[in-house]
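This week, study the protein below.
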Amino acid sequence: MAEIALFVHSTGTGPFMWTRLLTPRPEGLTPLTPSNRGYSLADMVPRGQPLSLADEVAHLRAQIPADTTALHLVGHSYGGLAALTLAMDKTLPLRSVWLYEPVLFGALRAEMPHLPDDAAADVQRLFDGAHSMLDDETGGLAPWLERFVDYWNQPGAWAAMSDKARQMAQLVGWKMYQEVRAVATTAEPFAHYRLTVPLTLVRGACSPAPTREMVQRLAAANPHAEVEVLPGLGHMSPLSAPDQVMPSLQRHWARAMG
C-alpha cells in the first residue's frame, strides 16, 4: 500500500526541475519524478515521428505502482495538461492535484472572441499566421526553440543559454514541438476538467497573459479550487525560484492530507 505523488515536468525540462520541491513533504508520501516520453537517451523521438498526449498519459499511467492507494498529481505547464488528462482516469485513487500554470491553449483558442486583448494577442502571435508555433517544418529547430524559450522566459533567454544547454534542447526539440502541438490542439473545453478532489491552481503574477486566463477558466470549472497568484514570479519559477513556490505546495499538502 502506498501514497504516491506523481510529478510531471514541463516542456524542455526534466525530472530535475522538481528536486528542490520534493522536501519537506508529508510523512508517508512517496514522490515519483519520471521523465516524459522522449527525454531519455533510451526513448528519443526521431524527427517526424508523431507522439500524442494520449501516448504521454499512457506512459505516466504505467509509472504508478499497482499497490498505490492514494495518488496526488503535481504538474507544471505541459505537465499540468498531462496531469489533468491523467486525472480524468476514474480507475485511479486520485486524492489531490496541484498545478503551476497548466497550459490548455486548445481550450483557450476556442474562446478567442471572449479573451482580453492582451491574452488574445499572445495566442494569435503564437499560433496564427506565417510564424505559427505549429509549423511542422520549423517545429523543434533552433529558431523555433529560440521563440519558445524567449516567450516563456524573457527576450534574449535563448541567446543567454550555454552552448551545451542549447544543444540539449535541440536534441529533444522535436518532442518539445509535439508537446506544444498537443497543448494547442487538445480540444476538450475547460469544463471537461472537473475534479472533486482538492485542487490548487498556481500562477506567477509576471507570467504571460494567457496563463492568467487558463487558470481563471479552470477555476471557474472547479469552484472548490484554491487559486494562488505568486507576486514577482513567472512561468518557469518552479525551476528558477523553487523556494518561493514551495510554500504553495506545502499549503496544498496540508489541505490534501491534513
